[in-house]
């Protein structure tokens, strides 16, 4: 597989009906600040905008970031052209609804759950085994009693392009 292919770095675009369901499950309200990590082509971003959210769409790939800016011009979306490992999160309360690259699961959680994070809650599309491990064994901050983790909706492989080789599920994270 070529090193630059989507599958090689764990990005699998989420089909529109599943993106809509993800945003609906997250119960996004008008005016909420929501971060879309690995926004890609804006499948989730579009539904966040439709729900009335103020969106920070984080996308490392320069052409996709430019396309997001053009697609959502005038809609209140702020496109952040950054690697999520280098991202500075908002200081005010925010939520995350995202399909981050599978290869960045640990980095995403470290970022979002770091001490001082203003994260209120997240709906993250992850590899099922990774999400199960997080729910069953927890992560270091869970032991501090700050976060609650649960498994949400299972997403079929046909929900993505390219289809992942692994099963996926939504990890729901809530501040206690």
Automatic annotation (TrEMBL):
Binding residues for S-adenosyl-L-methionine: 12, 14, 38, 59, 83, 99
The keyword Transferase is assigned to this record: yes
Residue intervals of the Ribosomal RNA adenine methylase transferase N-terminal domain: 18-176
One Pfam family, short name: RrnaAD
Annotated GO MF terms: RNA binding; rRNA (adenine-N6,N6-)-dimethyltransferase activity
Keywords assigned by UniProt, alphabetized: Methyltransferase, RNA-binding, S-adenosyl-L-methionine, Transferase
PROSITE patterns the UniProt entry points to: SAM_RNA_A_N6_MT
Gene3D superfamilies reported for this sequence: Vaccinia Virus protein VP39
Keyword Methyltransferase included in the entry's annotation: yes
Stored InterPro entries: KsgA/Erm, rRNA_Ade_methylase_Trfase_N, SAM-dependent_MTases_sf
Family of this protein: Belongs to the class I-like SAM-binding methyltransferase superfamily. rRNA adenine N(6)-methyltransferase family.
Name of the protein in question: 23S rRNA (Adenine-N6)-dimethyltransferase
Species in which this protein is naturally found: Mumia flava
Lineage of origin: Bacteria, Bacillati, Actinomycetota, Actinomycetes, Propionibacteriales
